[in-house]
Q: What sequence folds into this?
């Protein structure tokens, strides 16, 4: 009995320390971005594209990178969602539970989740060469979609698997087909979790630099075509931090602040939508 109490106290303390480490890390990152980025933040940073000599400390902003990141990640999110959701519904509504095919599919997603993003960038670049594409907005969308697909699919799969089996049995008992059950029971019941999965993948995609380094290119102009280059915030931060000019390095932190705010807004909106949708699900 005494050993059990000591064991419980040990793991309770371990969990508390781990939680504090995570919170402290988050506070330190946000603090560093705010302290170093706020002095360089101004209206021109988010409303203007880079002017001549921007990377030498002259006028301009990162509007090109903000718009490019939203285009690249938005397109990639759409593609990943369209591919991931049917796979997840098939695994949970059609495929035989515990079959080798199901386990192999989930194992494949786990492996792909752990693949470094630079590999996706190289793979996306190879696909672009095969298709005869140059570094472009479309190339960036393809590479980031590859990166986001296993993250989104695996996260969706976990929440769909949590739907009570009794709900599926009730659906089948009233004569619903597997497709109707997948669409109207599985997808609807897991919708808050599915939105969270999309959010996780979006946050991972918009903050990744390696996958777009070879595929999206970079330009000081706003993206005007799927086949033209597009700037992204991670690469803008990378290029600004690489200059020896202190003013430009401060702008890198301001760019990081913009990226953080975008992810924060996306998180809040997704949570609000998730709570609203969760009212119509079975607890």
A:
């Amino acid at each position: 009995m005494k050993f059990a109490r000591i064991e419980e106290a040990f793991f309770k303390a371990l969990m508390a320390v781990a939680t504090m480490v995570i919170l402290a890390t988050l506070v330190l990152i946000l603090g560093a971005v705010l302290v170093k980025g706020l002095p360089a933040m101004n209206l021109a940073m988010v409303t203007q594209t880079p002017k001549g000599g921007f990377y030498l400390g002259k006028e301009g902003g990162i509007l090109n990178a903000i718009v490019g990141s939203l285009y690249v990640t938005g397109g990639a999110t759409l593609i990943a969602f369209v591919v991931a959701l049917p796979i997840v519904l098939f695994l949970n509504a059609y495929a035989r539970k515990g079959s080798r095919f199901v386990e192999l599919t989930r194992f494949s997603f786990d492996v792909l989740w752990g693949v470094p993003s630079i590999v996706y960038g190289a793979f996306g670049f190879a696909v672009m060469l095969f298709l005869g594409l140059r570094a472009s907005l479309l190339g960036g969308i393809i590479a980031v979609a590859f990166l986001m697909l296993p993250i989104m699919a695996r996260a969706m799969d976990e929440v769909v698997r949590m739907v009570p089996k009794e709900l599926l049995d009730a659906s089948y008992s009233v004569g619903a087909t597997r497709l109707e059950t997948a669409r109207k029971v599985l997808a609807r019941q897991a919708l808050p979790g599915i939105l969270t999965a999309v959010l996780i993948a979006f946050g991972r995609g918009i903050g990744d630099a390696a996958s777009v380094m070879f595929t999206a290119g970079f330009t000081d102009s706003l993206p005007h075509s799927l086949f033209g280059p597009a700037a992204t915030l991670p690469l803008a931060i990378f290029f600004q931090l690489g200059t020896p000019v202190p003013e430009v390095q401060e702008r890198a932190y301001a760019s990081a602040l913009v990226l953080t705010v975008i992810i924060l807004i996306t998180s809040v909106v997704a949570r609000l939508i998730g709570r609203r949708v969760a009212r119509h699900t079975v607890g």
Notes: The CA atoms of residues 66 and 233 lie 6 Å apart. The chain is about 75% helix and 0% strand.
